[in-house]
Amino acid sequence: MFTNDDTERGQVGIGTLIVFIAMVLVAAIAAGVLINTAGMLQTQAEATGEESTQQVSDRLEIVSTSGEIDESNEVNQLKFVMAMAPGSDPIDLNQTTAQFIGEQGEEMKAINADESGGGGTNDYVELIQGVDDEDEPVLTDTSDRVELIFDVDGDGENGLDWDPLEEGEQLTVIFTTDAGASTQTEIRVPTTITDEDESVRL
């Protein structure tokens, strides 16, 4: 039987070429999927990293804490001088919350002009340095200072719905920014308050 070796070799070559092209196409599709997945993972990782960084760095610092004394020698007002932490992005205090946990219960206050008493004026915020607008208080520099004021017996309008703090009473205050970064401080009223005291360091 007559056989054309050149023809057979050509048929084998075409089959091999088809298989090769199919393998290239499969590899290209797989590579595309991997590249797309890697891109998505990178984007998610960047977003997660940025969010985690903000939760750590975009926080407030408490410069000082004091309490105003009433005629019964009890603390009826809490004052916090606040600043932004080094490395923090600008912090909008209207997007910040203050949580009070003490012997009289637990309360969460939003430091927001619309939610405080005074008809649109933010009664919680008193400007000290570097911040121009009391209704839109935004800390943009580490030298900026504001004072946050909470009436302890404010009936929930401009402070806590608590009784004034007695000598030796303790509470925890947690400030949380819009980024989710928290700053916590422990407060203890002095065990002895005299009639001469108008305010005390806490």
From TrEMBL:
Q: Which residues cross the membrane?
A: 12-35
What's the name of the protein?
A: Flagellin
Tell whether Electron transport is among the UniProt keywords: no
State the family named in the UniProt similarity comment for this chain: Belongs to the archaeal flagellin family.
A GO molecular function annotation here is: structural molecule activity
A UniProt-annotated Pfam family: Flagellin_arch-type
Gene Ontology CC: one annotated term: archaeal-type flagellum
Q: Which residues form a coiled coil?
A: none
Q: Which GO terms describe its biological process?
A: archaeal or bacterial-type flagellum-dependent cell motility
Which keywords has UniProt assigned to this entry? Archaeal flagellum, Cell projection, Cilium, Flagellum, Membrane, Transmembrane, Transmembrane helix
